[in-house]
Write a structure and sequence with these properties.
330 residues; alpha/beta; two-stranded antiparallel sheet; 13 strands; binds zinc ion
């Protein structure tokens, strides 16, 4: 990776763009030393949703793999630095089609950089075309609710009750939309779900299906991966960190029960986890109509707590109490 490509992913700010030589050089050097991948957002679009506010779906390319990782963004003013950077000779129409616009698109709009209806306009650095970050138009330096979510086809699409990925995904979106939910402070319309295409804790869908068969044969989720000669957790969150930095997020309120993830989000001096926001399973609410109820999910959550150190405190009530000591050990 060149110093130039690294510098592209460094978050811009008005200070940085106006006084960039020393600050940008040292930031680029620190970033290069960190070994973060280079990410580029190539398109963004507004998606109206069935509940809550519109979201803005960002599609990313990177220099580590050929997968299309995503950022699901709550808040029009959270801006990807790589998407908004001006390309040489680019028309305003081309920028609107890429999604690099301020405010809201409407039929007949001609400028990406100015939304006359909302009275919003963006400024760019004349030399390198980077977005000049101004609080009136662009979210910056604020604590932001974030979920780093790994793709789970079975849990999100095929109604699987083997894991709680689908429920956690839904919960993250709901919390970002609301001001508060009980004691938990929500995102009040701002937040980011980084959606990484690393199925089955990084081992892929085919191997995950084999692991499920091993689980039906008595292994837990950790043992099944080990029996297939995979690491317990093969996920890589470095692309997720690079995406958050590209979106100008620096102070993260991370939605997770996984203490390892808190440590993995840290990317000083650009990214800090300032709070862990727990995700308590809905099935623990006491209302049997809520959440996922299956003997598989009980075992899955038990393994997360006992073998992977997840910070869930409510004791699990198992559907069946194991009597065989060999079974009880898994
Ligand atoms: Zn899952």
């Amino acid at each position: 990776m060149t110093a130039e490509t690294v510098a592209e992913a460094v978050p811009s700010s008005s200070t940085l763009s106006q006084n960039k030589s020393a600050a940008a050089a040292s930031a680029a050097a620190a970033k290069a030393a960190s070994g973060l991948p280079h990410v580029q957002c190539i398109a963004r679009a507004r998606i109206p949703t069935v509940q809550g506010p519109d979201i803005f779906l960002h599609l990313y390319q990177n220099d580590r793999d050929n997968k299309e990782h995503l950022a699901i963004v709550f808040g029009e003013d959270i801006r990807s630095r790589s998407l908004f950077r001006k390309h040489a000779g680019e028309t305003q129409e081309a920028r609107m089609i890429r999604g690099a616009y301020v405010g809201k698109l409407y039929p007949g709009r001609t400028s990406a950089d100015v939304d006359e209806k909302q009275g919003l306009s963006l400024q760019f650095d004349e030399k390198d075309g980077s977005l000049v970050v101004e609080p009136s138009t662009t979210w910056c330096e604020q604590e932001t609710l974030v979920r780093i979510h790994s793709e789970c086809y079975t849990g999100e699409t095929a109604w699987s009750a083997r894991c709680d990925c689908g429920e956690q995904f839904d919960r993250a979106g709901k919390l970002m939309a609301v001001d508060h939910e009980g004691d938990i402070k929500g995102g009040n319309g701002h937040g980011v779900i980084v959606y990484l295409r690393q199925e089955g804790r990084g081992i892929g869908l085919g191997e995950k299906l084999k692991a499920y068969n091993l689980q039906d044969l008595g292994a837990d989720t950790v043992q099944a991966n080990l029996l297939l000669k995979h690491p317990v957790d093969a996920r890589d969150f470095s692309i997720g960190r690079a995406i958050l930095i590209d979106l100008g997020i620096s102070q993260v309120r991370l939605l997770t029960n996984n203490p390892d993830k808190v440590a993995q989000v840290e990317q000083p001096p650009f990214l800090h986890c300032v709070e862990r926001v727990p995700m308590v399973p809905l099935s623990w609410s006491g209302n049997h109509s809520e959440g996922i109820h299956s003997k598989e999910i009980d075992g899955y959550l038990r393994t997360k707590i006992e073998r992977m150190g997840h910070l869930l405190q409510q004791p699990l009530t198992l559907h069946t109490a194991p009597t065989d000591p060999k079974t009880a050990a898994i």
